[in-house]
Structure formats: C-alpha cells, structure tokens
Design a protein that fits this description.
With 270 residues, this protein is mostly helical. The model is unreliable at 4-20 and 37-41 (pLDDT under 50). It is built from 13 helices and no strands. The chain has helices spanning 9-13, 25-34, 44-53, 57-73, 93-108, 118-136, 143-147, 152-163, 170-182, 187-202, 210-213, 226-241, 246-264. Helix 8 crosses helix 10, helix 10 runs antiparallel to helix 12 (226-241) and helix 12 (226-241) packs antiparallel against helix 13 (246-264). The radius of gyration is 25 Å and the shape is globular. The longest helix is centred in the middle third of the chain and has 19 residues, at 118-136.
Length: 270
C-alpha cells in the first residue's frame, strides 16, 4: 500500500468517453483551479494563461466585459463579491492591461473575432475599459494609441468621455490632438463628444440660483467651481480643434454664457 492514492490519468482523461470530448485540457485546468491546495491557480496571470491553454480566452474576455457593464450600471459593484466572477477582476489594471495586449496581438495577426459577434463586442468593451482606466490613472498620452484599436464609433464614445476629466495645459492638449490624428482617431468627433458630455453633466448645476450655489465664477468673477472649470475645459478643446469645429465652438460658447448669465439673475422676491 502506498501512502498516497495513485492517480490514473489514462482512466481520468483518456477513457473512451473522454475521448469524445473536444478538449481534455479544460477539464485538467478546472480541477487544478478547484483545488484548494493550489492557490496560484487563482492568480490573475494564471487565469489568463489557463484560458489561453484551454482555448477559453473568449469566455474570459466576455466575463470581464460583463463586469465592466455592471460598473456602468451599479456604482458600488465589486467583482470580488460576485460569485460569477470566477476569480477575475476587471478593476485589476494589470490584468486588464495583459488581456488588452493579447487582444491587440490577435488583431494584428488577423486572429480576432468577426465584427458583430458576441466576442467582438466583449473585446471592444474590454479595450474601452482599459482606455478609461488610462484616463483615471492620468496616462492620457496613451489614450489615442489604444483607442485606435476600437471601432470609430466606440473610439469616439470612450475618448470623448475620458477627455472630460483632462486638466492639462494647452501644450498637452495639442499633443493629444496630434496623436489622435496620427493613430487615425477622429479628433473632431471626440472633442465634440467631450463638449456634449460636459454640457449634459453640468446642466443640473445651473438649475439653481447663484445664492443657492454660493460664490461662483460665472465667467465674470469669483472662484470657479468644478462645473465651471469643466465647461471652460470643454470650450478649450473646441478652440484647439480650429476651423472644423468653429460652428460647434460658437454654439457651445453661447450655451455656456447663457448659463453664467442666468446665474447672475437675482431670484424673485417672495
């Protein structure tokens, strides 16, 4: 008698019934991951490696896309508390970075999924999530590069959203616009989207009177509030775009000044 029970791999994985399975490797990896004695199997990079070996990388991408969608809908969503996450965490920048680079490599070698498929949509969501993460980490200089791997529509949506939070100077803004042109991202569409989002996000802030908001900038004096700075930042993007967005700039300037002027109107006496 041996101290440890022997393991018959032939019986476990190569019986007549198992030979009909498409993949034996996924079964092996699932058993390793389920083992409480092999904690390394649950590490992010191990999960990615396992998905590649078992040809289940598309499922991993779809799971990350599902989590990112939950973040949009549920602000307090935590993948660690999600029983369906299977150890994956879309809030892990390193994991997101590795997955995105694998997706880009697959694109380059022509092995990516067909447009319109569930996997393709999930891949776009994961890359978009990484672009958003770059903005949150103040790595705006990388945004155009990765956004260029998205469809034009998705690139416009995510870059427009990310640039709302940019606070750099004009030189950095001009460099970002130059990079957008360099990598084939529609700069005019992105900057217009940024202004549209800015106007939408700040609209409710100007629904109250100046006395209710307190001392504000209003374009004429006082201390700028975050919403005032956000509006001015949106206009600065349009100014740098030049002639292609001249009409959009004039329209947005009028809208911003109307908001500032309305704040100067004293509330009616009771």
């Amino acid at each position: 008698m041996t101290q440890f029970p022997s393991f018959d791999a032939m019986a476990a994985y190569h019986t007549q019934s198992s030979l009909n399975d498409d993949m034996i490797m996924p079964r092996i990896l699932d058993e390793i991951a389920a083992s409480g004695n092999i904690s390394e199997a649950r590490l992010p990079l191990r999960l990615i490696q396992g998905s590649l070996i078992s040809l289940r990388f598309p499922e991993l991408v779809q799971e990350l896309a599902r989590q990112l969608q939950h973040f949009e809908e549920i602000p307090n969503y935590d993948p660690q508390q999600d029983e369906l996450s299977s150890g994956l965490d879309a809030t892990d920048p390193q994991m997101l970075r590795v997955v995105v680079h694998i997706l880009i490599i697959l694109q380059v070698v022509g092995a990516s999924s067909e447009e319109g498929t569930k996997y393709h949509k999930a891949a776009e969501s994961v890359i978009s999530g990484y672009v958003t993460t770059l903005g949150e980490c103040d790595r705006f200089e990388l945004v155009p590069l990765y956004a260029s791997r998205l469809s034009p529509e998705n690139a416009t949506a995510v870059v427009g959203k990310v640039l709302v939070h940019f606070t750099g100077d004009d030189a950095k803004r001009e460099e970002l616009i130059r990079q957008m042109y360099q990598y084939g991202v529609d700069a005019e569409a992105c900057l217009k989207k940024t202004m549209d989002i800015t106007l939408e996000q700040t609209e409710s802030c100007y629904a109250t009177s100046i006395l209710e908001r307190g001392m504000v900038f209003n374009g004429f004096g006082g201390e700028p509030q975050p919403e005032d700075r956000q509006l001015i930042g949106g206009l600065e993007w349009l100014m740098l775009a030049g002639a292609p967005l001249r009409r959009e700039l004039i329209h947005s300037v009028c809208e911003v000044y109307k908001r500032f002027l309305r704040q100067l109107t004293p509330p009616p006496r009771s």
